[in-house]
Specification:
alpha+beta, Alpha-Beta Plaits, 5-stranded mixed β-sheet, two-stranded antiparallel sheet, 4 helices
């Protein structure tokens, strides 16, 4: 079994790298994989992108919060490439997109938001919608790339997306014209 297969660890001990019950990586494994991709991208300059998806629980009934997390994780596990790295930390989800430039990352972020527009079946069989914001950052690769800066920029983008309101996607730093 591959050590980092996000689908192969489900059901193992409490120490496994998958967040239960969503089935995406936890932040520890994500950070290890992020460092690996950063090292590779510094050595062989190629674009890398990071999405931070912030679930907005204030738009949900409390009984639907866990279901909303599962919906986001399902979308990530179902519609990302196998090379992409999804992770969860409470109501925040991260998606590392190796070898993905800004245009590609913007497509991924937009596709995730459009998938979230579908109604879901929640507690008591009642429909609900998952509401989130996405912050996006990217780097062209090379020596100036650090994991800390990539994470910091994704967090800034997510904060700006939150200010813009539900279902928004913000890029930071903004692309120069």
């Amino acid at each position: 079994m591959c050590l980092f297969s996000r689908r192969g660890w489900a059901g193992m001990s409490q120490q496994h790298p998958i967040t239960e019950p969503t089935g995406v990586y936890n932040k520890f494994v994500f950070n290890v994989l992020l460092q690996h991709e950063i090292s590779r991208t510094r050595r062989y300059p190629m674009p890398i992108s990071l999405l931070q998806i912030v679930l907005l629980p204030e738009y949900l009934q409390p009984e639907n919060l866990e279901r909303a997390r599962q919906v986001i994780a399902y979308i990530l596990n179902r519609f990302l490439r196998s090379a992409d790295v999804p992770a969860q930390d409470k109501n925040d989800f991260f998606v590392l997109l190796p070898q993905t430039d800004l245009a590609g990352a913007r497509c991924v972020g937009s596709r995730i938001l459009s998938r979230l527009e579908d109604s879901q079946i929640g507690a008591g069989g009642l429909p609900f919608k998952v509401t989130a914001c996405i912050g996006l950052t990217w780097h062209m690769g090379g020596d100036s790339l650090t994991a800390e800066k990539l994470l910091q920029n994704a967090q800034l983008a997510a904060q700006l997306a939150l200010q813009n309101g539900p279902n928004s996607l913000v890029i930071y730093p903004e692309p120069s014209s």
